[in-house]
Specification:
About 35% of the residues lie in helices and about 20% in strands. It is built from five helices and five strands. The structure holds 1,3,4-trihydroxy-5-OXO-cyclohexanecarboxylic acid.
């Protein structure tokens, strides 16, 4: 399996941004940790981060024919980006939405996800371990499809 892990706006500031909420590790630290700890069923992980909605949509368009699944932490785009939602829905690649923090236990605008119902699952509040959970969800989904 080849998967694309996308992190959206402001996630490049992990380690600096609200460490009490998002932890002390940088995104690079977390990506290295994911690579080491992901199940060997994953042949390749492509990491992508952008602060720009259009660039996130572009990478989905560019890579969808080459990947088996997407894991996306869209940051605040989660709560309002219909164009991101349309991009994910258009390519029909199984996608898991993930958030480091517990979005259900914060400001009320964070409780809304405009992509939730077109993703196969939503993971939140588990910190970096959520990315591994998301990988396992994708693997199980793929195995059940065979
Ligand atoms: C986040 C939660 C979002 O509400 C927020 O805008 C983020 C990070 C998370 O990982 O917990 O940027 O997606």
């Amino acid at each position: 399996m080849i998967i694309l892990i996308i992190n959206g706006p402001n996630l490049n500031l992990l380690g600096v941004r609200k460490p009490e909420q998002y932890g002390k590790e940088s995104l690079t630290d977390i990506e290295k940790w994911i690579k080491i700890n992901a199940t060997p069923k994953i042949k390749k992980i492509i990491f992508f981060q952008s602060n720009h909605e259009g660039k996130i949509i572009d990478i989905i368009h560019e890579l969808y024919k080459k990947i088996d699944g997407i894991i996306i932490n869209p940051g605040a785009l989660t709560h309002y980006s219909y164009s991101l939602r349309d991009a994910i829905e258009s390519v029909q690649i199984p996608t898991v939405e993930i958030h480091l923090s517990n979005i259900m236990d914060r400001e009320s605008f964070r409780k809304t996800s405009v992509i939730k119902d077109i993703c196969i699952s939503q993971v939140f509040g588990k910190g970096k371990k959520g990315y591994l959970d998301a990988i396992n969800i994708l693997c199980n989904y793929k195995e059940n499809q065979l």
